[in-house]
Design a protein that fits this description.
single chain; alpha/beta; 8-stranded mixed beta sheet
Amino acid sequence: MQGDTEVGEGCRFFPFSSIGQPPQDLKFRGERTRLRIGRDNIFREFVTVHVGTAAGGGETRIGDHNLFMAYAHVAHDCRVGSHTIFANAATLAGHVTVEDYATIGAFTGVHQFCRIGRHAFLGGYTVLTQDALPYVLTVGNRAASYGINVIGLKRKNFAPDAIRALKKAYQVLVRSRRPRERALEELRPEIEGHEEVRYLAEFIGASERGVAR
């Protein structure tokens, strides 16, 4: 480990992982920036995680209980939540946000400033240049969404009625092309009754790069 790096208890670092090195950003001039890592994370062989940059807030941050498989890369100023999985050679450019319980497949590349929602699943070799929807299977070059990740949510013990509500919300918000206000009005019972649907609607509404459809 190098630089201003803070690591929580229980983290495991395998041979040749490189943690806290300067970012691969030509604007970086050696300013004092940080890397903050939570507890019980696993960094396998050749994983690289870099400190932040002054222009990006000065900090790269990783939560708890994450698995970074061999050759995964987390660039400067990224925000990674907790309980995520990065398969082999999954790569984040700078300023990416990855929310809790997301899975990023092997050899997937994520463009800078993208967001990956909670419980999102990105298939292997995906090229993501827009935001990846929460609860949704996103795959391809360029990335496209393929519906709610029903099998994954069942494995995580999501309630059947929550999965049904998410499937309806996905059809209305993503596939139907209805005007946003009309779609939200149609989904009002699901939004009021299911936190997952409310979060999905808010995630889409807050997107600055657009979402992978």
